[in-house]
């Protein structure tokens, strides 16, 4: 027996399937809302290098904490752990004092000889989250304080050949636009040790872009420099 399926029944089935597809697409990873303490929701334009710079963690650490098989693949709206469980609470409590109280500041030395006299762009907290220091290609770039190299590579757009040094549980310094690296990831360095040479990688002139970050937040480096 040849049974004819009414046209409107078929149309309703297709409409139902289409509605489910639309709902599934709309029910993707949320892009707003609260996140647990010590975590961060990925925003458009983020990558692990940028997130690591913001929170003072190496990309490899973030990848390990979040079980990322491919660190280059993160999605907008994805929630990532960015702080160790034991230190997230204490870090948030100490944030205001570490950036405000002079007694809690880590004393640093200028990363370039005569750096203070050669600042070409000051920190403003928005378009420039550090200070830019001019110089001659090949000028030694020095560690501002004792610490450990978290990152020494060229993978974060806008920073060129970048070095990140961790100095304690909440303080990190960044040295961007280098010409050559003199240290490697994981290496312990002393204050004043040459870590790179000045260059112009991913920028339009020879300079050092220097940042100080406390609990991941960029602060004005000048008060920290002796």
From TrEMBL:
Transmembrane segments: none annotated. InterPro entries: Cell_wall_metabolism_enzyme, Dup_hybrid_motif, LysM, LysM_dom_sf, M23ase_b-sheet_dom. Residues 1-24 form the signal peptide. Keywords: Signal. Residues 82-101 have a biased composition (Low complexity). Residues 82-107 are annotated as: Disordered. Residues 38-82 form the LysM domain. It comes from the Bacteria. One of its GO terms (cellular component) is cell outer membrane. PROSITE patterns: LYSM. GO terms for molecular function: metalloendopeptidase activity. Belongs to the E.coli NlpD/Haemophilus LppB family. This is LysM peptidoglycan-binding domain-containing protein. It comes from Neisseria zalophi.
């Amino acid at each position: 027996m040849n049974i004819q399926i009414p046209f409107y029944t078929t149309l309703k089935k297709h409409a139902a399937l289409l509605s489910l597809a639309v709902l599934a697409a709309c029910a993707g990873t949320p892009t707003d809302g609260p996140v647990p303490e010590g975590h961060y929701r990925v925003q458009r334009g983020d990558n692990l290098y940028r997130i690591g710079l913001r929170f003072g963690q190496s990309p490899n650490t973030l990848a390990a904490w979040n079980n990322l098989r491919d660190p280059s693949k993160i999605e907008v709206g994805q929630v990532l752990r960015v702080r160790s469980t034991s230190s997230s609470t204490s870090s948030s409590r100490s944030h205001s004092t570490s950036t405000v109280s002079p007694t809690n500041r880590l004393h640093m030395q200028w990363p370039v000889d005569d750096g203070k006299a050669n600042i070409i762009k000051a920190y403003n907290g928005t378009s420039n989250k550090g200070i830019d220091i001019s110089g001659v290609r090949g000028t030694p770039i020095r560690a501002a304080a004792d610490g450990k190299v978290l990152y020494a590579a060229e993978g974060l757009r806008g920073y060129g050949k970048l070095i990140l040094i961790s100095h304690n549980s909440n303080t990190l310094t960044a040295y961007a636009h280098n010409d050559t690296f003199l240290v490697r990831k994981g290496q312990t360095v002393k204050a004043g040790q040459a870590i790179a040479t000045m260059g112009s990688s991913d920028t339009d002139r020879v300079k050092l872009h220097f940042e100080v970050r406390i609990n991941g937040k960029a602060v004005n480096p000048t008060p920290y420099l002796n």
